[in-house]
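Ticket #4471: structure output looks truncated?

Reporter: J.K.
Steps to reproduce: submitted the chain below (149 residues) through the standard prediction queue, then opened the result file.
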Amino acid sequence: MSDALIDVLLAEREIHRTLVAIERAMDERDWGALGGMLLPDATADLGMGTLMGREAIIGLIRSFLDACGPTQHLLGNVLIAVQGDEATSRAYVSDVHKGTGEKSALTFSTLGDYHDRWRSVEGIWRLVHRTKLNRATLGDISIFERGTG
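Returned output as attached by the reporter:
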């Protein structure tokens, strides 16, 4: 196996691990870890317009996840293409969000597709841009509204 092929396989592995780590950081509400996987000037379109910068991206995610109960983001059918220090990936995402308080019996889920761009900076792959395409939603979106209890 050539060194170039080994480098691509290692890059794909690191990007895949980072994809999974981003989802786990959201589910664990580990905003510091999430921030470390995004470039400071990362951008995103998560369905509510373009977000500019790591803090804006985390802020939008927190506005939803801090208001609900447990979540689980699952990835599948991951495709990664590496070109030197740049890469793209696509991954299906299925996420489940549970309500809290008086909404604890409710859930909200999306079926989506992440389209991501990556850059290796000093040997570490970080997210440059994420677009989330939602294919379907299920359940009650009101679980993200802060209620009493």
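Triage note (M.O.): checked the attachment and the full token line is present. Residues 45 and 131 are 5 Å apart (CA to CA).
Status: closed, working as intended.
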